[in-house]
TrEMBL record:
Transmembrane segments: none annotated. The gene is pyrF. Keywords: Decarboxylase, Lyase, Pyrimidine biosynthesis. PROSITE patterns: OMPDECASE. It is an enzyme of class 4 (lyase). The lineage of its organism: Bacteria, Thermotogati, Deinococcota, Deinococci, Thermales. It comes from Thermus scotoductus. InterPro entries: Aldolase_TIM (IPR013785), OMPdecase_AS (IPR018089), OMPdecase_type-2 (IPR011995), OMPdeCOase_dom (IPR001754), RibuloseP-bd_barrel (IPR011060). Pathway: Pyrimidine metabolism; UMP biosynthesis via de novo pathway; UMP from orotate: step 2/2. This is Orotidine 5'-phosphate decarboxylase.
Length: 257
């Protein structure tokens, strides 16, 4: 599976941020069943499944095992996988992260942090090309405080925009057809920024977090992957398969209105 095929699927990404306290006396067993049911029910309506690594890591070794099991199940169902870990480090450590999530899971994507320098991202980009995966670099994140650093003016332009321009140039070397394997994370909570970034990076896939619980609305356009986590995986604040199906329908309706 080539991750870039996700861009030809319905532009909705299911975010999985497991909350064991919502799953009864045997939380991991119930979480496993519920997640598989949601994947199967929503598969035709999704571009990909995004796993927030922190929530699985918080569950210890059993949580990491569950992550691997659910990621493999999603891929068997034909759903591309995004590992949301915002990884970033220098040298051999970056290479190890790239092996762990891109080479071990060919055709998958990983979110990364650029603030150690663009040279530290090269191992991720190379692994994405080798594995037919993708990398989503944090550019303008969905949280309200993102502007503290990301909006700082550098030579008259916001820092995030200078980063976008550098990544767009870099991404041309990893472009295959219309799309690059170097994507960007841009919060759906800042729709005007999405438009600005698209002008500077016409060939980069965008991962758009913040849809639903954070107040962002689904955005239309090629190469946009709208991501909903709590609003889609736990509609109404609890496991609810019928509610998840309805939420997916509502998101799709918003994209065609």
């Amino acid at each position: 599976m080539d991750f870039l095929l996700a861009l030809s699927r319905p532009p909705l990404v299911l975010g999985v941020d497991p909350r064991p306290e919502l799953h009864g006396p045997e939380p991991l067993s119930h979480l496993r069943r519920y997640a598989l049911e949601v994947f199967e029910a929503l598969a035709p309506k999704l571009a990909a499944v995004k796993f927030q690594l922190a929530f699985f890591e918080a569950l210890g070794p059993e949580g990491f095992g569950l992550l691997c099991e659910l990621a493999s199940a999603a891929r068997v169902m034909g759903l591309p996988v995004i590992f949301d870990g915002k990884r970033g480090d220098i040298g051999s450590t970056a290479e190890a992260y790239a092996r762990a999530y891109l080479l071990r899971f060919p055709g998958s994507a990983l979110t990364v942090n650029p603030y150690l320098g663009l040279d530290t991202l090269t191992p991720f980009f190379q692994a994405a090309r080798e594995s037919q995966g993708a990398v989503f670099v944090l550019v303008k994140t969905s949280n309200p405080g993102s502007g503290f650093l990301q909006d700082l003016l550098v030579e008259g332009r916001p820092l995030y925009l200078r980063l976008v321009e550098a990544l767009a140039r870099k991404g041309e070397g990893y472009r295959e057809g219309e799309w690059s394997r170097v994507g960007m994370v841009v919060g759906a909570t800042y729709p005007e920024v999405v438009l600005t970034v698209r002008e500077k990076a016409p060939h980069a896939p965008f991962l758009l977090p913040g849809v639903g619980a954070q107040g962002g609305r689904p955005l239309k356009g090629p190469g946009l992957l709208n991501t909903a986590s709590r609003a889609l995986f736990y509609p109404g604040g609890r496991p609810d398969l019928e509610g998840a199906l309805q939420a997916a329908e509502d998101f799709h309706r918003a994209l065609v209105e």
